[in-house]
Amino acid sequence: MRFMIRLVLLGFLLSGIVACSNPSAEKKCKNDDGCLAAQTCVKEAGKDEGVCKAKSSCDTPCKSKDDCKNNQTCEAGCCKSPSTCKTKCQAKSDCTNGQDCQKGCCTNVGGTCSKADDCPEKQECIGASGTGVCQACGQTCGTNLDCSTGTGIQCYRGCCRRPPCKSNSGCDSTSSKKYCDTKSGQCVACLVNKDCNATRTVCNPKTFTCKKVECTDSADCPSQKPVCSTTSYKCEEKPVCRVDSDCTDPQLNRCDPKGKGTCKRGNCQACTADDECGTSDDFCVKSSQGLKDGAKCLIGCKKNSDCPTGFDCEEKVGEKYIVGKGISVCFPRIQYCKNPCQANKCKPKTEFCNLEKGGICELRPAPCKPCTSKDDCNEPGNTGNTCLTLGTSKFCGKACTTKEDCPKDQKSSGGATRDFACVGGQCTALDSCK
């Protein structure tokens, strides 16, 4: 009997030793009074009894979702933020685009990012949206209590930081990062150059940080290099040209602004190669490409309003591409850069300038000229003549209302002077048409 009592006492003693050897075992409780000073009593929803947990493991105790904020849920008596995992995984093979599987979630590793959610936990996205880089955060955390005090500072995905911002008001106006990049939700040092207050500093568009440069204005530059580049922010020599008006040579009146600028051949100037013409959008168009008085420089365009008077923005002449598919130039409507008829002095009453034949002067179609259709009787732009039928013959006639509308002193094929009368609305030779 004594032996049995000793065995029972030994059992109790051993169980006490085991319990004491496991200091991490969670103690049951009904309220905080039953826990240590550094602990709190955490209860699951609907239960009267909970367990003691370290206060730092639960920022906001709760009984239901109503006790939580910012879309948090109540889990095991603690308010927890919803999962930001877009693609769940079990292995790296479940992920795409170079992502790795970390804690059951496909996550960017060392690659580009747009926001903190694109990076693994305890990393944040540094840089512009879409071109940022995942880097270790300045202060890691497990809960909000691990973060130093500061307006709006929270533990977000293992980093002490402000929650994603939507406007500048979401950033600390007293810190060095007081501007909101709404695409990434990050508070940054600058968005545009004017956000950088220090002398000769500009905003780096890739990192949204202010960087020191040689100049921000030409006033910062010496006389040897008097111009401040608006792209490199370095002092440069004065360019040859930046706009067409900088070019004074009438043969080289088109500015290619690349580099220091070069004055090149402008619209309709004679050329032998594309490089001689203005910008990279301009081309040397030859006769084989539809320009009848080529080769000439034609300027590039997107729409008709980009072109000078008398030119249209064209990709094709007929069914043939002028330069190539998707490339348009200002093309003259008459297919000549210079109208040849302006130089030729045709006799206004008896001759006309035939543009189809290169601007030569031709006799106007005369009454009694044999014809098959009215097109044989009219020069371009003149619709006064028509093709008449008399018996089995067809001849050109001129519309009229009085004799004054008809030709005078018209020579016949035999050289005699021929007189005309207005008969039936048509000018008719008095010696008849034969």
Helix content: under 10%
Q: Which band does the percent of strand residues land in?
A: 25-35%
Kindly name the structural category: mainly beta
Integer-rounded radius of gyration: 45 Å
Note the total helix count.
Answer: 1
Coarse shape = elongated
Termini Cα gap: 159 Å
The oligomeric status of these chains comes to single chain
Largest sheet: 4 strands, antiparallel
Number of strands: 34
Order of strands across the widest beta sheet? Answer: 29-30-34-33
Mean pLDDT: 79
- Which spans of ≥5 residues are poorly predicted at pLDDT below 50? 12-24
Describe what you observe in this structure:
With 434 residues, the protein is mainly beta. Among the domains are: 108-188, no CATH class; 193-236, no CATH class; 244-332, no CATH class; 363-429, no CATH class. It contains one helix and 34 strands. Strands 29-30-34-33 form a four-stranded antiparallel sheet, with no helix packed on it. The protein has a three-stranded antiparallel sheet with strand order 1-3-2, with no helix packed on it. Strand 4 (73-75) and strand 5 (78-80) form a beta hairpin. The protein is elongated.
Give me some keywords for this one.
1 helix; single chain; 34 strands; 26% strand; 434 residues; four-stranded antiparallel beta sheet; mainly beta; elongated
Describe, in short, the structure shown.
By secondary structure, the protein is mainly beta.
